[in-house]
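During the no-cost extension, the postdoctoral fellow (Dr. R.K.) reprocessed legacy sequence entries with the updated structure-token encoder. One reprocessed record is reproduced below for audit purposes.
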Amino acid sequence: MMAATSTTLAPKGANGSALLTLMKLRTFIALFAVIIFFAIFAPNFTSTANMILMSKHVALNAFLVMGMTFVIITGGIDLSVGSIVGLCGMVAGGLILYGIELPIGYTIFFNLFEIVLITLSIGLLIGLINGLLITKLNVAPFIATLGTLYIARGLALLSSDGQTFPNLVGRPEYATTGFDFFGAGRILGLPVSIWILIVLALLAAYVARSTPIGRHIFAVGGNERAARMSGIRVDVVKIFVYMFSGLCAAIVGVVISSELMAAHPATGESFELNAIAAAVLGGTSMSGGRGTIGGTIIGAFVIGILSDGLVMMGVSSFWQMVIKGLVIIIAVVVDQAQRRLQQRVTLMQMAKAG
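Re-encoded structure tokens follow.
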């Protein structure tokens, strides 16, 4: 009887492991599928110029996805990143064009390096506010970041009365020229934004895999109560991930306004949805405790290529929204199925070992 039982379980365990492996590789499979599909049906999809352009678009979403990944791993969510993009773009544009007017009749102009530093600091500050609301005032992440979403977007609109800051060429006498380097410049043939993404991705991956704060992020998402009892400073970890998310959003604000050489307060609308979709598609669990930077970058490529490919095929923007929504739902369903299958395979392996 025992031999028969062992023989019955083996194929199921093998099949379950194979299916689990396929689920874990779903992001790569999806990326391969969309590339093949659009290479066949979208005109000029594989041209060098289009590949570089798509990479720039993907980079913008990938910045947000890295920050969103850390947030989701801790069991949170950040809905404010799109508004931070818009606000930070307006901050950079306003400082380049007008500086800061003082009540005493003087105007302070900052050089380009200081402008970028101030802009990134705004993203960090909003992330800090999100983290403090969640940790110190016990506001749910969804509500806290929804509130800062509206505040940041409102401030962006107020900064120019809803108008665009155009022609951000800067003024040589104030050392504010060269802003276009971040969005249109190239190093060794690649856009600057791609290089920034590579550096930030390597740094984020190192933090996640090889530092105490990275291990604490996963511990908090896996079991917050256990993490707190083991001495992990949970509040510090949460504040860190929201500040990192705000920084990533600020970088996107700088890059977009630099690329366009203009800043508009509506920039970044719905960016948070693309970031969440890419993170989930890349294997980050919405229940927390699981995710990788590499996986979410691949997820960003899937979402970015899907968006650009649909545009090249002339698909309506309305249908694009429907398709992205379906991608999010399918990704979450597969993630939940993977979790359940992982538990069953683990139990079967334990039973065989026993």
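The chain is about 75% helix and 0% strand. Confidence is low (pLDDT under 50) at residues 1-11. The remaining legacy entries will be reprocessed before the final report is submitted.
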